[in-house]
Amino acid sequence: MAAPAKRVEQLDRVVIRFAGDSGDGMQLTGDRFTSETAQLGNDISTLPNFPAEIRAPAGTLPGVSSFQVHFADYDILTPGDAPNVLVAMNPAALKANLADLPAGADIIVNTDEFTRRNLAKVGYAESPLEDGSLAEYAVHPVALTSLTLGALAESGVSKKDGERAKNMFALGLLSWMYSRPFESTLRFLERKFAKRPDLVAANKTAFQAGWNYGETTEAFSVRYEIKPAKMQPGTYRNITGNQALALGLVAAAVRSRLPLFLGAYPITPASDILHELSKHKRFGVTTMQAEDEIAAIGAALGAAYGGALGVTTTSGPGVALKGETISLAIALELPLVIVDVQRAGPSTGMPTKTEQADLNMALFGRHGEAPLAVIAPKSPSDCFHAALEAARIALTYRTPVILLSDNYVANGSEPWLLPSVDELPDLRVEFATAPNTEDGRFLPYLRDPETMARPWAVPGTPGLEHRIGGLEKADKTGDISYDPANHEFMVRTRQARIEAIPVPDVDVEDPDENAQVLVLGWGSTYGPIGAACRALRQRGLTIAQAHLRHLSPLPANLGEVLAGYEKVVVPEMNLGQLAAVIRARYLVDAVPFNQISGLPFTAATLESMLEDVVKNG
Amino acid sequence: MAETIALKLTAKDFKSDQEVRWCPGCGDYAILAAVQQFMPELAIPRENIVFVSGIGCSSRFPYYMNTYGMHSIHGRAPAIATGLSASRPDLSVWVVTGDGDALSIGGNHLIHALRRNVNLKILLFNNRIYGLTKGQYSPTSEIGKITKSTPAGSADSPFNPLSLALGAEATFVARTIDSDRKHLQSVLRAAAEHEGSAFVEIYQNCNIFNDGAFDLIKDPATRDEHLIRLEQGQPITVGKYNVVHPEGSFGLKVQEGGTPIVHDATVQDPAYAFALTRLSGSDLNTTPIGVFRNVRRPSYDEIVRKQVLDAKTQATGSPEEMLDGLLNAGDTWTIL
What we know:
Largest interface: A-B, 70 and 61 residues
Protein name (chain B): 2-oxoacid:ferredoxin oxidoreductase subunit beta
Pfam families (chain B): TPP_enzyme_C (PF02775)
Largest sheet of chain B: 8 strands, mixed
Number of strands of chain B: 12
InterPro entries (chain B): 2-oxoacid:Fd_oxidoreductase (IPR051457), THDP-binding (IPR029061), TPP_enzyme_TPP-bd (IPR011766)
Number of helices of chain B: 12
Oligomer: heterodimer
Strand content of chain A: 15-25%
Order of helices and strands of chain B: HHEEHEHHEHEHEHHEEEEHEHHE
CATH topology of the largest domain in chain A: Pyruvate-ferredoxin Oxidoreductase, domain 3
Keywords (chain B): Oxidoreductase
Largest sheet of chain A: 7 strands, mixed
InterPro entries (chain A): 2-oxoacid/accept_OxRdtase_asu, Pyruvate:ferred/Flavod_OxRd, Pyrv/ketoisovalerate_OxRed_cat, Pyrv_Fd/Flavodoxin_OxRdtase_N, Pyrv_flavodox_OxRed_cen, THDP-binding, Transketo_C/PFOR_II
Helix content of chain B: 25-40%
């Protein structure tokens, strides 16, 4: 592929959205573009958006699948609010995404799909390419399908396989436009179609044809460059939240020297964690696809009782079903990690859309007084560290821990500075091996004075045979007890031991050191809140940002932090669940700001809201 | 095993320090005593034995066994035991459950444990009533049964637990009776020797809410006419009747004369064991006890363990080195 002969413009950031029918391979196209971009050293943030239907009728609005990638020569926090470029593989993709485009955005459309029939499917009476309705955009009509088929005329692949390669033509064209290195894509094609050399060749040809089309046709006069971002030195890979979470769990198994047992029932958007972990048996990982959500956590708890790192992964509906077993784990005081990749509820809700509305359930959604630890990752790569932290708390303090991820971080991706394995926390545990009283008895509920954890005495340990269960236990002995004073003591002890778990203080980012307004978030809203705060500061406004990773127990300094600001704003993708906790616990007049559309906050939405608070109080 | 026999455990070693709190006269006492007396035979150290139960009268059982034990949640014992057994092949894991626990609230876990053939010994104490909640009908109560929750008679048809287990692909299916210690222990012995799920239904008398439910097959005056003792390699008969397979019929029949079929629990086709289970209904008129089915199929535990072991065998490097490789897999780039 020859050197570009066209005008080259420098940009600092670009947001591209690839959109097409769910069968058009848009996720893969976006993923490859992201990988090329990562190789170049730009900072990246991505967000896929796919329909719940596996294959909605072709060419319809419900069948539109898209992938957005934001890349820049500086560090970025979100996948971008509005695309600068839309690649629309059919009329449905255009119609579904047009409202998100700012005036002046580039639109690359596959004209071959703008047939009367396809236009009618989405309610276009006239082709928007011809009726002047796209006048405010820079439209680049490209006959993607026929150009791809033309390039493959001599290749010998079927028409169907040829048409399928049109996404590689589109990728080639975009790769040319944004001067992306393409070697990783060619290698990827060789791996993906290793058993079909004809398809390797066809897809490479399509990619090259797309690249050459950009270079030779007059339709594209400018080529862009985005210089590498200044990023911390080290080795990076691009990673999604679900992948990072799975790797974090493997790392926890390695660092604890424990076998990992995952019990899971397939559920969107958590299933990818099960898929990923099932590949890592060599680390002593056992994955069990259970008959239901209850069995999934039951098996994980059974494995934990036997001395494994027990984990169950699910989404909100699954956590609801697991509630009784979580309470049992609380009563048994055994380590257990429960991952909730939140999605829009209630009920089945919108399984492929994001929400943070399971916080109340995580904190309070069980019968009886049933406290546990809750943590939430703030970004895709942070899921790795959050998984390790969840395992650390569970193992050290012998408690179930709920990890609240969500669809936004689970499926979004960003560059991840790979940690050095040696620097990961040491999670080794000590099992009980001997009686723990002077008279040689073993008391299963005699606590460690420092961690308040009871001994983890696993079956197979001679001399420590004991019985545990869901009935209230007498302090120390663990025998069944209906004694009123004992119950009160045990309830208060279970609460106290969770509250006593030491968690790091919350950091406040207040570069001007005189902010009056604090914006407090948790979990996946970190990116858009951070981007909004930066934008405000660039415009000379002052604002402080604090972000919670630990939601139970809350950081010890949180009350003091909150008291230091005149106004505390809490943006959440729910109806104000953290805000209610903050108000109840600290008597702070926290102002909730809520969006429950199934979509993440845009930085612009938060910027405008926060600007109003900063200026008008 | 030779060294474990030197343990010289006795029934007393399996008694915990907890006071047994079933109602006086409950059939559970007899089962507990039989199990405690049988346990030393296993020649397994106490610490390697775990009893897991759900909720219900029977589920108090683990508290009375001086082994490891967990009294868990209603219906969930098979799921919890599956995780334990699959991750700890060195343990002998027993599930104690009841007709409500196993067949009503926990039905799903029971059938899936059986189809997976998890290496569990499942003892279902069937008293055909809810005892702990004080007398409601259960999924094995006979249709029309009058209880606190069914004053006009139950409208539900009962499960035949053994038919259900066979439908769930169980590899070992047996039935015994609380009051027949010798028979109970012989069934426990066969169950313990079985690799994979062993499902044992134990008819158990609830003398408070369903007293005498099994008298027909317990009372010396009537039992010989109604109780069919299945013995491997022996013709199946009851009183003066034979159990035969009439030509052209799908099932078995109890009749005078004809050639009694010879019992073979190792028949692969579950249709035979299923036909045996259909001899008994709610009326207990012709009720087989003994081992109905005992066939070999790889256990879930074995398969899962082998996958992990194979993967570990093929791997090279320390866990930390492997983890480093895993983190650095795929397309990486380095910034200097």
